[in-house]
Amino acid sequence: xxxxxxxxxxxxxxxxxxxxxxxxxxxxxxxxxxxxxxxxxxxxxxxxxxxxxxxxxxxxxxxxxxxxxxxxxxxxxxxxxxxxxxxxxxxxxxxxxxxxxxxxxxxxxxxxxxxxxxxxxxxxxxxxxxxxxxxxxxxxxxxxxxxxxxxxxxxxxxxxxxxxxxxxxxxxxxxxxxxxxxxxxxxxxxxxxxxxxxxxxxxxxxxxxxxxxxxxxxxxxxxxxxxxxxxxxxxxxxxxxxxxxxxxxxxxxxxxxxxxxxxxxxxxxxxxxxxxxxxxxxxxxxxxxxxxxxxxxxxxxxxxxxxxxxxxxxxxxxxxxxxxxxxxxxxxxxxxxxxxxxxxxxxxxxxxxxxxxxxxxxxxxxxxxxxxxxxxxxxxxxxxxxxxxxxxxxxxxxxxxxxxxxxxxxxxxxxxxxxxxxxxxxxxxxxxxxxxxxxxxxxxxxxxxxxxxxxxxxxxxxxxxxxxxxxxxxxxxxxxxxxxxxxxxxxxxxxxxxxxxxxxxxxxxxxxxxxxxxxxxxxxxxxxxxxxxxxxxxxxxxxxxxxxxxxxxxxxxxxxxxxxxxxxxxxxxxxxxxxxxxxxxxxxxxxxxxxxxxxxxxxxxxxxxxxxxxxx
Length: 616
Known about the structure:
Blueprint: H1 2-10, H2 12-29, H3 33-60, H4 67-79, H5 83-107, H6 109-113, E1 121-126, E2 129-134, E3 143-146, E4 156-160, E5 163-166, H7 168-171, E6 177-179, E7 184-185, E8 190-191, E9 196-200, H8 208-221, H9 228-232, H10 234-252, H11 255-264, H12 268-287, E10 290-292, H13 295-301, E11 306-309, H14 311-315, E12 321-327, H15 333-344, H16 350-361, E13 370-375, E14 379-384, E15 387-392, H17 394-399, E16 415-421, E17 424-432, H18 439-448, E18 453-457, H19 462-472, E19 476-478, H20 483-491, E20 498-502, H21 508-513, E21 516-520, H22 526-531, E22 534-536, H23 542-576, H24 583-601
Parallel strand pairs: 11-18, 11-20, 18-19, 20-21, 21-22
Antiparallel strand pairs: 1-2, 1-3, 3-9, 4-7, 4-9, 5-6, 5-8, 10-22, 12-17, 13-14, 14-15, 15-16, 16-17
Protein backbone atom coordinates (compact mmCIF):
# COMPACT_ATOMS: atom_id res chain seq x y z
CA UNK A 1 0.00 0.00 0.00
CA UNK A 2 2.87 2.38 0.84
CA UNK A 3 4.51 1.74 -2.54
CA UNK A 4 1.21 2.45 -4.30
CA UNK A 5 0.81 5.70 -2.36
CA UNK A 6 4.40 6.75 -3.12
CA UNK A 7 3.84 6.07 -6.81
CA UNK A 8 0.63 8.13 -6.79
CA UNK A 9 2.38 10.94 -4.92
CA UNK A 10 5.33 11.03 -7.34
CA UNK A 11 3.23 10.79 -10.49
CA UNK A 12 0.08 12.57 -9.31
CA UNK A 13 -1.24 13.77 -12.66
CA UNK A 14 -0.79 10.37 -14.28
CA UNK A 15 -2.41 8.73 -11.25
CA UNK A 16 -5.46 11.02 -11.47
CA UNK A 17 -5.80 10.27 -15.18
CA UNK A 18 -5.65 6.52 -14.51
CA UNK A 19 -8.30 6.84 -11.77
CA UNK A 20 -10.52 8.88 -14.09
CA UNK A 21 -9.99 6.34 -16.86
CA UNK A 22 -11.07 3.50 -14.54
CA UNK A 23 -14.15 5.45 -13.36
CA UNK A 24 -15.15 6.15 -16.95
CA UNK A 25 -14.68 2.49 -17.86
CA UNK A 26 -16.77 1.37 -14.87
CA UNK A 27 -19.59 3.75 -15.79
CA UNK A 28 -19.44 2.60 -19.41
CA UNK A 29 -19.66 -1.07 -18.41
CA UNK A 30 -22.59 -0.22 -16.12
CA UNK A 31 -24.45 1.16 -19.12
CA UNK A 32 -24.24 4.77 -17.96
CA UNK A 33 -22.83 6.16 -21.20
CA UNK A 34 -23.79 9.79 -20.56
CA UNK A 35 -22.05 9.88 -17.18
CA UNK A 36 -19.02 8.08 -18.62
CA UNK A 37 -18.70 10.52 -21.51
CA UNK A 38 -19.09 13.49 -19.16
CA UNK A 39 -16.29 12.26 -16.88
CA UNK A 40 -13.98 11.47 -19.80
CA UNK A 41 -14.75 14.73 -21.62
CA UNK A 42 -14.14 16.93 -18.58
CA UNK A 43 -10.88 15.10 -17.80
CA UNK A 44 -9.68 15.42 -21.40
CA UNK A 45 -10.42 19.16 -21.58
CA UNK A 46 -8.91 19.78 -18.11
CA UNK A 47 -5.66 18.07 -19.11
CA UNK A 48 -5.47 19.92 -22.43
CA UNK A 49 -5.57 23.35 -20.75
CA UNK A 50 -1.92 23.24 -19.50
CA UNK A 51 -0.80 22.14 -22.98
CA UNK A 52 -2.67 25.05 -24.61
CA UNK A 53 -1.16 27.51 -22.11
CA UNK A 54 2.34 26.21 -22.93
CA UNK A 55 1.62 26.53 -26.67
CA UNK A 56 0.50 30.15 -26.28
CA UNK A 57 3.54 30.93 -24.14
CA UNK A 58 5.87 29.39 -26.74
CA UNK A 59 4.20 31.24 -29.62
CA UNK A 60 4.53 34.52 -27.73
CA UNK A 61 8.28 33.92 -27.31
CA UNK A 62 8.69 32.99 -30.98
CA UNK A 63 8.94 29.23 -30.46
CA UNK A 64 6.91 26.59 -32.20
CA UNK A 65 6.68 22.97 -31.13
CA UNK A 66 4.71 19.82 -31.85
CA UNK A 67 2.43 20.08 -28.80
CA UNK A 68 -0.20 21.75 -30.97
CA UNK A 69 -0.98 18.37 -32.55
CA UNK A 70 -1.70 16.81 -29.15
CA UNK A 71 -3.96 19.68 -28.08
CA UNK A 72 -5.80 19.60 -31.43
CA UNK A 73 -6.35 15.83 -31.14
CA UNK A 74 -7.76 16.06 -27.58
CA UNK A 75 -10.12 18.96 -28.29
CA UNK A 76 -11.29 17.52 -31.62
CA UNK A 77 -11.99 14.16 -29.94
CA UNK A 78 -14.25 15.79 -27.36
CA UNK A 79 -16.05 17.97 -29.95
CA UNK A 80 -16.75 14.94 -32.14
CA UNK A 81 -17.86 12.79 -29.22
CA UNK A 82 -14.87 10.44 -29.37
CA UNK A 83 -14.33 10.69 -25.63
CA UNK A 84 -12.36 7.47 -25.31
CA UNK A 85 -9.93 8.57 -28.03
CA UNK A 86 -9.37 11.89 -26.26
CA UNK A 87 -8.85 10.20 -22.91
CA UNK A 88 -6.39 7.69 -24.35
CA UNK A 89 -4.34 10.59 -25.76
CA UNK A 90 -4.35 12.23 -22.31
CA UNK A 91 -3.31 8.92 -20.77
CA UNK A 92 -0.54 8.67 -23.37
CA UNK A 93 0.78 12.18 -22.68
CA UNK A 94 0.72 11.93 -18.88
CA UNK A 95 2.04 8.37 -18.99
CA UNK A 96 4.90 9.45 -21.23
CA UNK A 97 5.78 12.30 -18.87
CA UNK A 98 5.65 9.91 -15.89
CA UNK A 99 7.97 7.54 -17.74
CA UNK A 100 10.32 10.42 -18.48
CA UNK A 101 10.34 11.36 -14.79
CA UNK A 102 11.06 7.75 -13.89
CA UNK A 103 13.83 7.54 -16.48
CA UNK A 104 15.32 10.80 -15.23
CA UNK A 105 15.28 9.50 -11.66
CA UNK A 106 16.86 6.21 -12.71
CA UNK A 107 19.44 7.92 -14.88
CA UNK A 108 20.55 10.33 -12.15
CA UNK A 109 21.07 7.64 -9.51
CA UNK A 110 24.84 7.62 -10.11
CA UNK A 111 24.98 11.42 -10.10
CA UNK A 112 23.11 11.96 -6.84
CA UNK A 113 24.79 9.12 -4.93
CA UNK A 114 27.79 11.37 -4.28
CA UNK A 115 25.68 13.93 -2.45
CA UNK A 116 24.75 11.42 0.24
CA UNK A 117 28.28 10.91 1.54
CA UNK A 118 30.41 13.93 2.32
CA UNK A 119 33.55 13.93 4.52
CA UNK A 120 32.64 15.71 7.77
CA UNK A 121 35.47 15.15 10.27
CA UNK A 122 39.26 15.14 10.13
CA UNK A 123 41.87 13.86 12.61
CA UNK A 124 44.51 16.60 12.60
CA UNK A 125 47.95 16.38 14.21
CA UNK A 126 48.73 19.38 16.41
CA UNK A 127 52.21 18.80 17.76
CA UNK A 128 52.03 15.37 19.41
CA UNK A 129 48.27 15.46 19.86
CA UNK A 130 45.51 14.40 17.49
CA UNK A 131 42.36 16.51 17.51
CA UNK A 132 39.11 16.09 15.61
CA UNK A 133 37.91 19.12 13.68
CA UNK A 134 35.28 19.67 10.96
CA UNK A 135 36.67 18.82 7.53
CA UNK A 136 35.90 22.34 6.33
CA UNK A 137 38.45 23.73 8.83
CA UNK A 138 41.41 21.72 7.50
CA UNK A 139 44.03 23.95 5.88
CA UNK A 140 46.70 23.14 3.27
CA UNK A 141 49.81 21.52 4.84
CA UNK A 142 47.91 20.30 7.92
CA UNK A 143 48.91 16.75 8.85
CA UNK A 144 45.89 14.44 9.00
CA UNK A 145 45.40 10.80 10.00
CA UNK A 146 43.03 8.54 8.05
CA UNK A 147 42.11 5.25 9.71
CA UNK A 148 40.52 2.12 8.23
CA UNK A 149 36.89 2.66 7.23
CA UNK A 150 37.18 6.45 7.23
CA UNK A 151 36.66 8.97 4.44
CA UNK A 152 39.55 11.13 3.27
CA UNK A 153 38.42 14.63 4.39
CA UNK A 154 40.46 16.72 1.93
CA UNK A 155 42.82 16.14 -0.98
CA UNK A 156 46.13 15.08 0.54
CA UNK A 157 49.44 13.33 -0.12
CA UNK A 158 50.66 10.33 1.89
CA UNK A 159 53.68 11.09 4.08
CA UNK A 160 53.62 7.95 6.22
CA UNK A 161 52.09 4.46 5.99
CA UNK A 162 50.18 2.75 3.22
CA UNK A 163 46.62 1.50 2.68
CA UNK A 164 44.10 0.57 -0.01
CA UNK A 165 41.50 3.21 -0.86
CA UNK A 166 38.11 2.78 -2.49
CA UNK A 167 37.76 5.58 -5.07
CA UNK A 168 34.84 4.02 -6.98
CA UNK A 169 32.30 6.71 -6.11
CA UNK A 170 34.69 9.38 -7.37
CA UNK A 171 36.39 7.83 -10.38
CA UNK A 172 34.30 4.85 -11.43
CA UNK A 173 37.33 2.59 -10.81
CA UNK A 174 36.04 -0.56 -9.12
CA UNK A 175 39.42 -1.87 -7.89
CA UNK A 176 40.84 -0.38 -4.64
CA UNK A 177 43.94 1.76 -5.16
CA UNK A 178 47.03 1.08 -3.04
CA UNK A 179 48.45 4.38 -1.76
CA UNK A 180 52.04 4.69 -0.56
CA UNK A 181 54.48 7.50 0.20
CA UNK A 182 53.91 10.59 -2.01
CA UNK A 183 50.73 9.15 -3.56
CA UNK A 184 47.79 11.54 -3.73
CA UNK A 185 44.55 10.83 -1.83
CA UNK A 186 41.21 12.09 -3.14
CA UNK A 187 38.74 13.55 -0.68
CA UNK A 188 35.69 11.32 -0.45
CA UNK A 189 37.64 8.09 -1.03
CA UNK A 190 37.46 5.42 1.70
CA UNK A 191 40.41 3.87 3.54
CA UNK A 192 39.78 0.13 3.42
CA UNK A 193 42.68 -1.01 5.60
CA UNK A 194 45.62 0.34 7.54
CA UNK A 195 46.39 3.81 8.86
CA UNK A 196 48.08 6.59 6.91
CA UNK A 197 49.32 10.04 7.77
CA UNK A 198 48.91 12.60 5.01
CA UNK A 199 49.64 16.24 4.29
CA UNK A 200 46.62 18.26 3.21
CA UNK A 201 47.03 19.71 -0.28
CA UNK A 202 43.86 21.79 -0.36
CA UNK A 203 41.01 22.96 1.82
CA UNK A 204 37.76 20.98 1.75
CA UNK A 205 36.11 23.61 -0.45
CA UNK A 206 38.84 23.26 -3.08
CA UNK A 207 39.17 19.48 -2.86
CA UNK A 208 38.15 16.85 -5.36
CA UNK A 209 34.96 15.81 -3.59
CA UNK A 210 33.52 19.32 -3.48
CA UNK A 211 34.43 19.81 -7.14
CA UNK A 212 32.54 16.65 -8.05
CA UNK A 213 29.53 17.63 -5.95
CA UNK A 214 29.46 21.00 -7.70
CA UNK A 215 29.61 19.29 -11.08
CA UNK A 216 26.90 16.83 -10.07
CA UNK A 217 24.58 19.65 -9.09
CA UNK A 218 25.33 21.40 -12.37
CA UNK A 219 24.60 18.24 -14.35
CA UNK A 220 21.46 17.48 -12.36
CA UNK A 221 20.12 21.00 -12.87
CA UNK A 222 20.82 20.93 -16.59
CA UNK A 223 17.83 20.45 -18.82
CA UNK A 224 18.32 18.41 -21.98
CA UNK A 225 18.76 20.99 -24.78
CA UNK A 226 18.82 18.25 -27.40
CA UNK A 227 15.02 18.13 -27.11
CA UNK A 228 15.23 21.00 -29.58
CA UNK A 229 16.12 18.41 -32.19
CA UNK A 230 12.47 17.32 -32.12
CA UNK A 231 11.40 20.91 -32.63
CA UNK A 232 13.63 21.13 -35.72
CA UNK A 233 11.14 18.77 -37.34
CA UNK A 234 8.06 20.30 -35.71
CA UNK A 235 6.98 22.62 -38.53
CA UNK A 236 7.31 20.12 -41.42
CA UNK A 237 5.87 17.29 -39.29
CA UNK A 238 2.90 19.42 -38.20
CA UNK A 239 2.26 20.61 -41.78
CA UNK A 240 2.38 17.02 -43.08
CA UNK A 241 0.06 15.85 -40.29
CA UNK A 242 -2.54 18.55 -40.88
CA UNK A 243 -2.13 18.12 -44.64
CA UNK A 244 -2.96 14.38 -44.48
CA UNK A 245 -5.81 14.99 -42.01
CA UNK A 246 -7.44 17.77 -44.05
CA UNK A 247 -6.98 15.85 -47.32
CA UNK A 248 -8.66 12.77 -45.80
CA UNK A 249 -11.54 14.98 -44.58
CA UNK A 250 -12.01 16.79 -47.91
CA UNK A 251 -11.74 13.67 -50.10
CA UNK A 252 -14.09 11.58 -47.95
CA UNK A 253 -16.38 14.36 -46.86
CA UNK A 254 -16.26 12.89 -43.33
CA UNK A 255 -14.94 15.12 -40.55
CA UNK A 256 -14.18 12.06 -38.43
CA UNK A 257 -11.32 11.26 -40.83
CA UNK A 258 -9.56 14.45 -39.66
CA UNK A 259 -9.70 13.21 -36.06
CA UNK A 260 -8.60 9.68 -36.94
CA UNK A 261 -5.44 11.06 -38.59
CA UNK A 262 -4.63 13.69 -35.93
CA UNK A 263 -4.97 11.14 -33.13
CA UNK A 264 -2.16 8.96 -34.52
CA UNK A 265 -0.06 12.06 -35.27
CA UNK A 266 0.22 12.89 -31.55
CA UNK A 267 4.01 13.42 -31.21
CA UNK A 268 4.93 11.90 -27.85
CA UNK A 269 7.88 9.99 -29.36
CA UNK A 270 9.31 13.27 -30.66
CA UNK A 271 8.80 15.12 -27.39
CA UNK A 272 10.08 12.52 -24.93
CA UNK A 273 12.57 10.23 -26.66
CA UNK A 274 15.49 12.66 -27.10
CA UNK A 275 15.70 13.99 -23.52
CA UNK A 276 15.32 10.49 -22.08
CA UNK A 277 18.20 9.27 -24.26
CA UNK A 278 20.36 12.23 -23.22
CA UNK A 279 19.69 11.89 -19.52
CA UNK A 280 20.40 8.17 -19.74
CA UNK A 281 23.62 8.76 -21.69
CA UNK A 282 24.83 11.36 -19.17
CA UNK A 283 24.10 8.89 -16.38
CA UNK A 284 26.09 6.21 -18.21
CA UNK A 285 29.00 8.64 -18.48
CA UNK A 286 28.79 9.34 -14.73
CA UNK A 287 28.88 5.63 -13.97
CA UNK A 288 32.18 5.44 -15.88
CA UNK A 289 33.68 8.33 -13.92
CA UNK A 290 32.84 11.00 -16.52
CA UNK A 291 30.67 13.99 -15.61
CA UNK A 292 29.16 15.71 -18.67
CA UNK A 293 27.63 19.01 -17.61
CA UNK A 294 24.90 19.38 -20.24
CA UNK A 295 23.09 17.76 -23.13
CA UNK A 296 24.62 20.34 -25.46
CA UNK A 297 28.12 19.21 -24.46
CA UNK A 298 27.12 15.59 -25.04
CA UNK A 299 25.84 16.41 -28.53
CA UNK A 300 29.02 18.30 -29.46
CA UNK A 301 31.21 15.55 -28.03
CA UNK A 302 29.58 13.11 -30.45
CA UNK A 303 30.53 15.31 -33.41
CA UNK A 304 34.19 16.14 -32.60
CA UNK A 305 36.47 16.37 -35.66
CA UNK A 306 39.65 17.75 -34.04
CA UNK A 307 41.14 16.76 -30.69
CA UNK A 308 43.74 18.94 -28.99
CA UNK A 309 45.63 17.65 -25.95
CA UNK A 310 47.78 19.17 -23.27
CA UNK A 311 50.97 17.15 -22.81
CA UNK A 312 51.99 16.97 -19.16
CA UNK A 313 49.57 14.95 -17.06
CA UNK A 314 47.28 14.29 -20.01
CA UNK A 315 49.18 12.44 -22.75
CA UNK A 316 51.97 11.72 -20.28
CA UNK A 317 51.67 10.41 -16.73
CA UNK A 318 52.64 13.76 -15.28
CA UNK A 319 54.49 11.96 -12.52
CA UNK A 320 57.75 13.65 -13.33
CA UNK A 321 60.80 11.84 -12.05
CA UNK A 322 63.73 13.93 -10.86
CA UNK A 323 66.46 13.63 -13.51
CA UNK A 324 69.02 16.08 -12.16
CA UNK A 325 69.79 19.39 -10.47
CA UNK A 326 72.34 22.00 -11.54
CA UNK A 327 73.25 24.74 -9.09
CA UNK A 328 75.16 27.98 -8.93
CA UNK A 329 77.45 28.70 -6.01
CA UNK A 330 76.92 28.90 -3.06
CA UNK A 331 73.70 26.81 -3.32
CA UNK A 332 73.63 23.04 -2.91
CA UNK A 333 71.27 20.64 -4.67
CA UNK A 334 69.16 20.16 -1.54
CA UNK A 335 68.92 23.91 -0.91
CA UNK A 336 67.73 24.60 -4.45
CA UNK A 337 65.21 21.76 -4.27
CA UNK A 338 63.92 22.88 -0.84
CA UNK A 339 63.52 26.51 -1.98
CA UNK A 340 61.69 25.46 -5.13
CA UNK A 341 59.40 23.09 -3.20
CA UNK A 342 58.64 25.74 -0.58
CA UNK A 343 57.20 27.97 -3.28
CA UNK A 344 55.69 25.22 -5.45
CA UNK A 345 53.69 23.72 -2.56
CA UNK A 346 51.25 26.56 -3.22
CA UNK A 347 50.42 25.24 -6.71
CA UNK A 348 48.49 22.21 -7.99
CA UNK A 349 50.44 22.00 -11.26
CA UNK A 350 51.97 18.63 -12.13
CA UNK A 351 55.51 20.05 -12.08
CA UNK A 352 54.84 21.65 -8.70
CA UNK A 353 53.64 18.36 -7.22
CA UNK A 354 56.70 16.60 -8.60
CA UNK A 355 59.09 19.13 -7.05
CA UNK A 356 57.33 18.97 -3.67
CA UNK A 357 57.26 15.16 -3.83
CA UNK A 358 60.99 15.02 -4.60
CA UNK A 359 61.76 17.32 -1.66
CA UNK A 360 59.60 15.37 0.78
CA UNK A 361 61.14 12.14 -0.49
CA UNK A 362 64.50 13.49 0.65
CA UNK A 363 62.88 14.65 3.92
CA UNK A 364 63.81 18.26 3.26
CA UNK A 365 62.16 20.92 5.41
CA UNK A 366 59.86 23.26 3.49
CA UNK A 367 59.59 26.92 4.44
CA UNK A 368 56.48 29.08 4.46
CA UNK A 369 56.48 31.46 1.50
CA UNK A 370 54.40 34.64 1.51
CA UNK A 371 52.97 36.88 -1.23
CA UNK A 372 52.67 33.93 -3.60
CA UNK A 373 51.66 34.79 -7.15
CA UNK A 374 51.06 32.09 -9.77
CA UNK A 375 51.47 33.11 -13.41
CA UNK A 376 49.55 30.50 -15.45
CA UNK A 377 51.82 28.70 -17.88
CA UNK A 378 54.95 30.40 -16.52
CA UNK A 379 55.58 29.68 -12.83
CA UNK A 380 55.38 31.25 -9.38
CA UNK A 381 56.77 34.21 -7.47
CA UNK A 382 56.85 34.76 -3.72
CA UNK A 383 58.73 36.03 -0.67
CA UNK A 384 60.80 33.97 1.78
CA UNK A 385 61.92 36.19 4.63
CA UNK A 386 63.67 39.12 2.96
CA UNK A 387 64.36 37.14 -0.20
CA UNK A 388 62.36 37.20 -3.42
CA UNK A 389 61.87 33.76 -5.02
CA UNK A 390 61.03 32.94 -8.63
CA UNK A 391 60.41 29.38 -9.84
CA UNK A 392 59.33 28.58 -13.37
CA UNK A 393 60.14 28.67 -17.06
CA UNK A 394 63.21 30.28 -18.57
CA UNK A 395 61.00 33.07 -19.96
CA UNK A 396 59.71 33.99 -16.50
CA UNK A 397 63.22 34.25 -15.08
CA UNK A 398 64.32 36.41 -18.02
CA UNK A 399 61.24 38.62 -17.66
CA UNK A 400 62.37 39.29 -14.10
CA UNK A 401 65.58 40.75 -15.52
CA UNK A 402 67.93 37.83 -14.93
CA UNK A 403 70.20 36.08 -17.41
CA UNK A 404 70.84 32.35 -17.27
CA UNK A 405 74.52 31.30 -17.33
CA UNK A 406 75.56 28.59 -19.78
CA UNK A 407 76.48 26.32 -16.89
CA UNK A 408 72.79 26.22 -15.93
CA UNK A 409 71.44 25.49 -19.40
CA UNK A 410 68.52 23.04 -19.26
CA UNK A 411 69.27 19.51 -20.53
CA UNK A 412 67.88 18.79 -24.01
CA UNK A 413 64.64 16.80 -24.14
CA UNK A 414 63.78 17.21 -20.47
CA UNK A 415 61.22 19.29 -18.59
CA UNK A 416 63.16 21.90 -16.63
CA UNK A 417 62.35 24.52 -14.00
CA UNK A 418 64.61 27.43 -13.01
CA UNK A 419 64.97 28.75 -9.46
CA UNK A 420 66.03 32.32 -8.78
CA UNK A 421 66.76 33.94 -5.42
CA UNK A 422 66.72 37.73 -5.36
CA UNK A 423 68.20 38.68 -8.76
CA UNK A 424 70.37 35.61 -9.32
CA UNK A 425 69.61 32.22 -10.84
CA UNK A 426 70.29 29.61 -8.15
CA UNK A 427 69.75 26.47 -10.18
CA UNK A 428 67.74 24.40 -12.62
CA UNK A 429 65.80 21.22 -11.82
CA UNK A 430 65.16 18.74 -14.63
CA UNK A 431 62.57 15.98 -14.88
CA UNK A 432 61.73 13.05 -17.09
CA UNK A 433 58.15 12.20 -18.02
CA UNK A 434 56.70 9.09 -19.66
CA UNK A 435 53.93 8.72 -22.22
CA UNK A 436 50.87 7.00 -20.78
CA UNK A 437 50.51 3.39 -21.87
CA UNK A 438 46.98 4.05 -23.15
CA UNK A 439 47.65 7.36 -24.94
CA UNK A 440 48.43 5.82 -28.33
CA UNK A 441 45.50 3.38 -28.23
CA UNK A 442 43.18 6.20 -27.16
CA UNK A 443 44.18 8.30 -30.16
CA UNK A 444 43.66 5.30 -32.44
CA UNK A 445 40.19 4.72 -30.99
CA UNK A 446 39.31 8.36 -31.59
CA UNK A 447 40.52 8.07 -35.20
CA UNK A 448 38.26 5.07 -35.72
CA UNK A 449 35.34 7.12 -34.37
CA UNK A 450 35.83 9.86 -36.97
CA UNK A 451 38.25 12.31 -35.34
CA UNK A 452 40.35 13.65 -38.23
CA UNK A 453 43.01 15.88 -36.65
CA UNK A 454 45.14 15.67 -33.52
CA UNK A 455 47.04 18.54 -31.97
CA UNK A 456 49.36 18.66 -28.97
CA UNK A 457 49.52 22.03 -27.24
CA UNK A 458 52.01 22.40 -24.40
CA UNK A 459 53.91 24.96 -22.40
CA UNK A 460 56.97 22.70 -22.54
CA UNK A 461 59.89 23.32 -24.90
CA UNK A 462 59.82 22.25 -28.55
CA UNK A 463 62.30 19.38 -28.24
CA UNK A 464 60.42 17.73 -25.37
CA UNK A 465 57.11 18.23 -27.18
CA UNK A 466 58.41 16.80 -30.48
CA UNK A 467 59.79 13.75 -28.69
CA UNK A 468 56.40 12.94 -27.14
CA UNK A 469 54.46 13.74 -30.32
CA UNK A 470 56.61 11.41 -32.42
CA UNK A 471 55.89 8.52 -30.04
CA UNK A 472 52.14 9.10 -30.43
CA UNK A 473 51.98 9.87 -34.14
CA UNK A 474 50.83 13.47 -33.65
CA UNK A 475 52.01 15.69 -36.50
CA UNK A 476 50.76 19.07 -35.28
CA UNK A 477 52.56 20.46 -32.22
CA UNK A 478 52.39 23.86 -30.53
CA UNK A 479 55.18 24.13 -27.93
CA UNK A 480 56.14 26.86 -25.48
CA UNK A 481 52.48 27.86 -25.39
CA UNK A 482 51.03 30.29 -22.88
CA UNK A 483 47.26 30.21 -22.16
CA UNK A 484 46.59 32.76 -24.92
CA UNK A 485 48.62 30.68 -27.40
CA UNK A 486 46.56 27.60 -26.57
CA UNK A 487 43.33 29.47 -27.22
CA UNK A 488 44.70 30.78 -30.52
CA UNK A 489 45.74 27.28 -31.60
CA UNK A 490 42.26 25.89 -30.92
CA UNK A 491 40.48 28.80 -32.60
CA UNK A 492 42.59 28.45 -35.76
CA UNK A 493 41.60 24.80 -36.31
CA UNK A 494 39.42 24.48 -39.41
CA UNK A 495 37.99 21.01 -38.75
CA UNK A 496 35.31 21.62 -36.12
CA UNK A 497 33.98 20.98 -33.53
CA UNK A 498 37.28 21.04 -31.58
CA UNK A 499 37.76 19.34 -28.22
CA UNK A 500 40.58 20.15 -25.82
CA UNK A 501 41.68 17.81 -23.03
CA UNK A 502 43.87 19.11 -20.21
CA UNK A 503 44.16 19.39 -16.45
CA UNK A 504 46.20 22.38 -15.31
CA UNK A 505 45.33 25.90 -14.15
CA UNK A 506 46.85 27.20 -17.39
CA UNK A 507 44.42 24.98 -19.34
CA UNK A 508 41.31 26.62 -17.87
CA UNK A 509 41.01 29.39 -20.52
CA UNK A 510 41.36 27.02 -23.49
CA UNK A 511 38.98 24.49 -21.89
CA UNK A 512 36.37 27.24 -21.84
CA UNK A 513 37.21 28.39 -25.37
CA UNK A 514 37.08 24.96 -27.04
CA UNK A 515 33.82 23.63 -28.47
CA UNK A 516 34.13 20.89 -25.84
CA UNK A 517 36.56 21.21 -22.93
CA UNK A 518 37.49 17.98 -21.15
CA UNK A 519 39.29 18.20 -17.81
CA UNK A 520 41.16 15.25 -16.36
CA UNK A 521 39.88 16.00 -12.89
CA UNK A 522 41.49 13.27 -10.83
CA UNK A 523 44.69 15.33 -10.62
CA UNK A 524 43.50 18.55 -12.17
CA UNK A 525 42.85 21.99 -10.78
CA UNK A 526 39.53 23.44 -9.69
CA UNK A 527 39.84 26.09 -12.41
CA UNK A 528 40.17 23.42 -15.11
CA UNK A 529 37.16 21.49 -13.80
CA UNK A 530 35.08 24.68 -13.57
CA UNK A 531 35.89 25.72 -17.15
CA UNK A 532 35.38 22.32 -18.77
CA UNK A 533 32.21 20.92 -20.34
CA UNK A 534 33.10 17.43 -19.13
CA UNK A 535 35.33 16.17 -16.32
CA UNK A 536 37.00 12.76 -16.20
CA UNK A 537 37.34 11.76 -12.57
CA UNK A 538 39.77 8.89 -12.97
CA UNK A 539 43.41 9.42 -13.94
CA UNK A 540 42.96 7.45 -17.16
CA UNK A 541 43.19 9.02 -20.61
CA UNK A 542 41.32 6.06 -22.11
CA UNK A 543 38.15 7.55 -20.59
CA UNK A 544 38.39 10.29 -23.24
CA UNK A 545 37.62 7.77 -25.99
CA UNK A 546 35.00 6.12 -23.75
CA UNK A 547 33.31 9.52 -23.33
CA UNK A 548 33.20 10.03 -27.10
CA UNK A 549 31.92 6.47 -27.69
CA UNK A 550 29.08 6.90 -25.19
CA UNK A 551 28.22 10.33 -26.61
CA UNK A 552 28.09 9.01 -30.17
CA UNK A 553 25.91 6.06 -29.20
CA UNK A 554 23.62 8.24 -27.10
CA UNK A 555 23.06 10.81 -29.84
CA UNK A 556 22.58 7.99 -32.35
CA UNK A 557 19.87 6.47 -30.14
CA UNK A 558 18.23 9.89 -29.64
CA UNK A 559 18.08 10.53 -33.39
CA UNK A 560 16.96 6.97 -34.05
CA UNK A 561 14.13 7.34 -31.53
CA UNK A 562 12.95 10.55 -33.15
CA UNK A 563 12.98 9.05 -36.65
CA UNK A 564 11.20 5.92 -35.46
CA UNK A 565 8.51 8.15 -33.97
CA UNK A 566 8.17 10.17 -37.18
CA UNK A 567 8.15 7.13 -39.47
CA UNK A 568 5.55 5.17 -37.49
CA UNK A 569 3.35 8.24 -37.07
CA UNK A 570 3.36 8.97 -40.83
CA UNK A 571 2.54 5.33 -41.66
CA UNK A 572 -0.31 5.30 -39.14
CA UNK A 573 -1.63 8.61 -40.48
CA UNK A 574 -1.80 7.19 -44.02
CA UNK A 575 -3.46 3.98 -42.80
CA UNK A 576 -6.05 5.78 -40.66
CA UNK A 577 -6.82 8.31 -43.40
CA UNK A 578 -8.70 5.47 -45.16
CA UNK A 579 -11.38 5.53 -42.48
CA UNK A 580 -11.24 1.79 -41.84
CA UNK A 581 -10.13 2.15 -38.23
CA UNK A 582 -11.56 4.13 -35.33
CA UNK A 583 -9.92 7.07 -33.60
CA UNK A 584 -9.98 5.14 -30.31
CA UNK A 585 -7.95 2.31 -31.88
CA UNK A 586 -5.54 4.89 -33.30
CA UNK A 587 -5.03 6.44 -29.87
CA UNK A 588 -4.36 2.99 -28.41
CA UNK A 589 -1.83 2.16 -31.13
CA UNK A 590 -0.05 5.48 -30.57
CA UNK A 591 0.24 4.55 -26.89
CA UNK A 592 2.09 1.37 -27.86
CA UNK A 593 4.33 3.34 -30.24
CA UNK A 594 5.23 5.73 -27.41
CA UNK A 595 6.29 2.92 -25.12
CA UNK A 596 8.40 1.31 -27.86
CA UNK A 597 10.18 4.55 -28.73
CA UNK A 598 10.79 5.59 -25.13
CA UNK A 599 12.21 2.21 -24.15
CA UNK A 600 14.44 2.41 -27.22
CA UNK A 601 15.72 5.74 -25.88
CA UNK A 602 16.42 4.11 -22.51
CA UNK A 603 19.00 1.90 -24.25
CA UNK A 604 21.36 4.86 -23.89
CA UNK A 605 21.70 3.91 -20.22
CA UNK A 606 23.24 0.53 -21.09
CA UNK A 607 26.90 -0.34 -21.72
CA UNK A 608 28.30 0.20 -25.20
CA UNK A 609 31.51 1.30 -26.92
CA UNK A 610 33.54 0.58 -23.83
CA UNK A 611 35.10 -2.15 -21.72
CA UNK A 612 33.20 -3.62 -18.83
CA UNK A 613 34.20 -2.53 -15.35
CA UNK A 614 35.92 -5.86 -14.75
CA UNK A 615 38.12 -5.38 -17.79
CA UNK A 616 39.78 -2.28 -16.45
